[in-house]
Amino acid sequence: MTPPSAQIDDEAASWVIRQDSDALSPSEEQQLYAWLQADTAHAEAYARARKTWGAMGAPAVTRTLARQPAAPLPSAASPPSRAVRPPLRRRHQAMALAACVVLGVSLQGRSLLIWWQASACTPVGEIRTITLADGSRVQLDSDSAIAVDDTPGQRRIRLLKGEAAFTVAPDPSHPFTVAAAQGTTTALGTRFIVRRDGSRTDILVTEHRVHVVAQHQGGPSEEVVREGEAATYGPEGLSSPHPVDVESAAAWTRNRLVFVDRPLGEVIAELSRYHRGYIRLVGTGLRDLRVSGSFVATDPVAAIDTLEHSMNLRVTKLTNALILIRK
């Protein structure tokens, strides 16, 4: 159950963004006014949410508001004022970004641009599933973001960051395509996974097949990747499809991380994707230790505890923000 204070913060953030994106009807504005009057904690949470949103520059939405004075905390004497109405697409983008803010996504540098473009996203440590307008489902891994092309008649998704599993609703007249980095993956069936890792993009097919086209230094190349196979593309080109252990590779979709004889360094790197703090190996030889095991993806601290006891490691936790692992 969501703690009351966290629920109030979520409600406050939702009110702020809906207000700034002009998504409130007159009756909803009165509801906001009543909500603010109901409890001083509501007004305080609203002030914090507006300060946070303002500190972010209210990306793109507040470009139209930049010349306006900052909105003060509504007083008991007057209901909240309405913001200048931004274009519809900007309002939709603002709501998506707001969701990322409420979920606790860190917005810095290039990440800010990614989250501003996103239609849906997940913070570190969360996996969630969304349903698209055509009935297709997208499962977003930890710290991931997608942008949905809203052009009528098209089914095109951009994977901006992280990893996503796609279960595609049948519609032969409208191909379902996922763009990531310098390549595209088009469904010729129903289920596949795409992961962006720097300049590298991995494709795993869990059902039927996909058509992959990649642009690289040597020019475009393409492959059909079938069920139980994976392929990778990047600046150097597109690899040939090769068989993989689908159960292990797709385990995160079941909230598991499965490792079979993997170096500890790789295991820690994967666990770090689900941890808000830092996990560091200290000392020589640790990275090459071999690990086999199955862990809950969204509980990396429990995984570290298991490794500590099963591998006779020494773990120092300077709160969960920094975990040091020694032999």
Folded structure, characterized:
- The structure is a single chain.
- This protein is an alpha+beta fold and 327 residues long.
- The protein has three domains: 99 residues, no CATH class; 139 residues, Jelly Rolls (Sandwich), CATH 2.60.120.1440; 72 residues, Phage tail protein beta-alpha-beta fold (3-Layer(bab) Sandwich), CATH 3.55.50.30.
- It is 28% helix and 32% strand.
- The protein has eight helices and 20 strands.
- Strands 2, 3, 6, 9, 10, 13, 14 and 15 form an eight-stranded antiparallel beta sheet that branches. It has a seven-stranded mixed beta sheet with strand order 1-4-5-7-8-11-12.
- α1 crosses α3, α1 runs antiparallel to α4 and α2 packs across α3.
- About 13% of the residues have low confidence.
- InterPro entries: FecR (IPR006860), FecR_N (IPR032623), Ferrdict_sens_TM (IPR012373).
- One of its GO terms (molecular function) is sigma factor antagonist activity.
- This is FecR family protein.
